Amino acid sequence: MSQKQVLLNAFNMNCVGHIHHGMWTHPQDRSVEFNSLSYWTDLARLLERGLFDGMFIADILGVYDVYQQSIELTARESIQLPVNDPLMLVSAMAGVTQHLGFGVTANLSYEAPFPFARRLSTLDHLTQGRIGWNIVTGYLDSAARAMGMKQLLAHDRRYDQADEFLDVSYQLWEGSWQDEALVVDRRRRLYADASKIHPIDHQGEFYQVQGYHLSSPSPQRTPLLFQAGTSERGVRFAARHAECSFVNASTPAAMRQQTRRLRQAAVESGRLADDIRIFMGVGVIVAPGEREAQEKYRSYLEYASPEAGIAHFSSSIGVDLAAFDLDTPIETGETRAIESVSKAYSGWTRRRLLEQHAMGSRYPLIVGNPSQVADALLQWMDEGDIDGFNLTRILNPQSYSDFIDLVVPELQQRGRYKTAYQPGSFRKKLFQQDRLPDRHPAARWRYAAGRR
After folding, report:
1. Residues of the chain with pLDDT under 50
2. Model pTM above 0.90
3. Span of the secretion signal (predicted)?
4. Which residue, among 229, 41, 262, has the nearest Cα to 135 in the 3D structure?
5. CATH number of the domain enclosing 78
6. Which terminal CB of the chain, N or C, has fewer other CB atoms within 10 Å?
7. What whole-number distance in Å separates Cα of residue 81 and Cα of residue 97?
């Protein structure tokens, strides 16, 4: 049985209601303060105290307007609306921490590779190599319309565009500047050697880019790459590009099937099975005693909004769930939304979904004392063949502080969680090297002696 140490990200979003909808109404929740910089810097300090590997910041463009064909419930319950830019938070949080990584979500469907590559290189410099990018292609028609399109591109075409976006980005990050280009010699008045700075010339189906990358090589060059798609096309994309992948399943056995599929796909793409760190999303309610934890859970149920949870879910699958009676099976059919989720829930009823979303979310929930929570997490780890967790916030910051004070010591005592940070970049902490390995497709764009 595996004895891997648990990797841990805090799963958050620059908004009020993220995953566990309705919990913003709890008197101990601070999420309504999300427009305050101190809210984020306090959280970053807390997570670093708990030795979290990273803060993963989700994001969407567009609004959840599928349920009841309106944003009425979305606005009333603050279902990821309002939502602010995740990248803007990083510099402030990096300034009060030394080790915490930051995985930021950015939708490449509405970005241009040339300025976007500069933004992430800038953050990689300012964080000293602690930036990651969660690569998404979007799933909301509302975002496409806001960007001047009639609707989203078809699911697989979005991934075709993503493949090309990554190829352009790799050329900028890995190939435009050689490592030796930056000289910084005051005596010779030579800051950079122009002979070692090269323009890219990409002429593709989606992008035509000619020019020099505007940033000098950052500690990681290419940011740590996250991705979450588990459709057939999404797995092919992850197998080629992703270093960290988010996968969810109903049981550890089902999770192992998913992880084997993903790791095998990586091998078939010329990489190693261990080149991908796999995370699952989970919520934890913990207290010193089991009875106290169960009481806490029951009290939380009074604030959660199952209806807000399935309103969020409606947009995830592109189906207005309000149009179905409680016990009518839901047929999702073809969708341009999240394909893997849509297929998994076809045939469910609205009543069953409301029961599943009792805590305002469909994420797995672990409730118990520290030993019970650790047992459950390690069962997912070992039987599901995953590497760690994206820990959702139920109450912010209490969900994280409870976990740090109660669960982290239990995992450390079992030898399954670090007791100190290793030095280095986000990638080095997870993979023992600052830059992508030579077997990653980005490496083909690197300069080397005598070849290009």
Report:
1. 1, 449-452
2. yes
3. none
4. 229
5. 3.20.20.30
6. N
7. 28
